Amino acid sequence: MEARGVVFEYLLGQPVLTDWSAVFPAGSLTALTGPSGRGKSTLLYLLGLMLQPSSGDILVSGESVTGLSDASRARLRAEQFGFVFQDAALDQTRTVLDNVTEAALYRGQKRAAARPRALDLLDRFEVDVPPHRKPGQVSGGQAQRIALCRALLTDPVVLLADEPTGNLDPTTSELVVAALQEHAATGAAVIVVTHSPEVAAACDIEIRL
């Protein structure tokens, strides 16, 4: 991924990002760090094609995606992206297992076909709850790991994570960071927003905003 001269304003004349550029290489784990309010999460949403820059360009595999229609951006996200939101963003009406397998539906796959990998991921990240339980019946740390399972389910080319260890104990944080490193090693571009010096130190690249 690449950002070229990106400007983003929530309010006219009040830019959050100004002429911001960076390259996020495939096969690398990149940390976005810096004080609160510097636009780290906003940048992650821009890279995830959920926001459009006010000006500048976002490129995926060398191709500009800034001018794509909403439908084309949604299709590209479904085919190539995984996203871990800071608040997990789980569907409270669905089971833990259905939340994870939801990512497969966006690619036109069946839930049943995705179940074995989903269960493997839940086991790998030690989400020790029955898969039929609802998100409202799990802890914040478990919800964050469920969201990571969902993001990893389809082996995305680009994985974006907003504070993926924010609600986790040190041991589980190490497990998550190792998984992010392993996914980057497959050739994916993995980008994480973090306030944790330990997580930043484990990344290949650190970009401070």
Strand order of the largest sheet: 6-7-8-3-9
Separation, N- and C-terminal Cα atoms = 17 Å
Mean pLDDT over the full residue set: 90
Total strand count, please? 9
**Tally of helical segments:** 7
**Element-level helix/strand string:** EEEHEEHEHHHEHEHE
Radius of gyration: 17 Å
* Strand content range: 15-25%
Low-pLDDT runs = none
Instruction: Output the CATH topology.
Output: Rossmann fold
Family: Belongs to the ABC transporter superfamily.
InterPro entries: AAA+_ATPase, ABC_transporter-like_ATP-bd, ABC_transporter-like_CS, ABC_transpr_LolD-like, P-loop_NTPase
Protein name: ATP-binding cassette domain-containing protein
GO cellular component, one term: plasma membrane
Write a structural description.
The structure is a single chain. The chain has one domain: P-loop containing nucleotide triphosphate hydrolases (Rossmann fold, 3-Layer(aba) Sandwich). It is 37% helix and 25% strand. It has 209 residues and is of the alpha/beta class. It has helices spanning 40-47, 70-80, 96-105, 111-124, 140-152, 170-185, 197-202, and strands at 2-11, 14-23, 28-33, 55-60, 63-64, 81-84, 158-162, 189-193, 205-208. The strands form two sheets. Strands 6-7-8-3-9 form a five-stranded parallel β-sheet. A four-stranded antiparallel β-sheet has the order 2-1-4-5, covered by helices on one side. Helix 3 packs parallel to helix 5. It is built from seven helices and nine strands, in the order E-E-E-H-E-E-H-E-H-H-H-E-H-E-H-E. Residues 1-209 form the ABC transporter domain. Pfam families: ABC_tran (PF00005). Belongs to the ABC transporter superfamily. GO terms for molecular function: ATP binding; ATP hydrolysis activity; transmembrane transporter activity.
